[in-house]
Amino acid sequence: MNTELLLFADDAAVTPDGLEYHQGFLTPVEEDVLLAQIDASEWLTDLSRRVLHFGFKYDYSNRRLDETARIGPLPEWLTCLARKVREAASADMKLFLDQQRPFEQAIINEYEPGQGIAPHIDRDCFGPVVATVSLGSGINMDFVQSATGENHVERLAPRSLLLLYGDARIAWRHGIAKRRKDKWQGQTLERKRRVSITFRTITDLRSAQD
Length: 210
Ligand SMILES: O=C(O)CCC(=O)C(=O)O
Prior knowledge:
alpha+beta; six-stranded antiparallel sheet; four-stranded antiparallel sheet; 5 helices; binds 2-oxoglutaric acid
């Protein structure tokens, strides 16, 4: 079997509707400033990867948010970044963004090589548009359509922005495999440390109950 052909076939698979990707969203200097800001914060270590929560603290064991989860407004540096996300969005995506409150929660994930995040759909306590900024290493994000099992791989470059809305947000699971290397367009790419910033709005604190 020709694995090169298989790899290209995978890359060329259908892109989920509502997935918007912006390469070069940040400059290297902006990336360095953000990483310095993040690394000056106190990481939480209760998961297998380190995380930071701003705005609201998400409870991974109950997978819910209630009033007790409120930390406070996003700090200025994240508010500025959230504003930049809106400016970079396409006209269509801006329409969806304008129908929801400005982003009010951010979760920062750190992935050392070999770490990942299980395939999931963000819960409906979160608003319709979810935005992720990538810092540090590039990484493959895997998408699987829940109804059909169809796959899509999105290569997230450092300094890129990913926006998920509609089907991409609710009909496809997304995750990052726990491995040290990714295959992309016929190449094997070593992972380094990656840090992601994911912005969300909260739709209804009570609807987070399962
Ligand atoms: O790190 C990423 O790019 C994705 C993060 C994510 O899916 C999440 O926090 O739910």
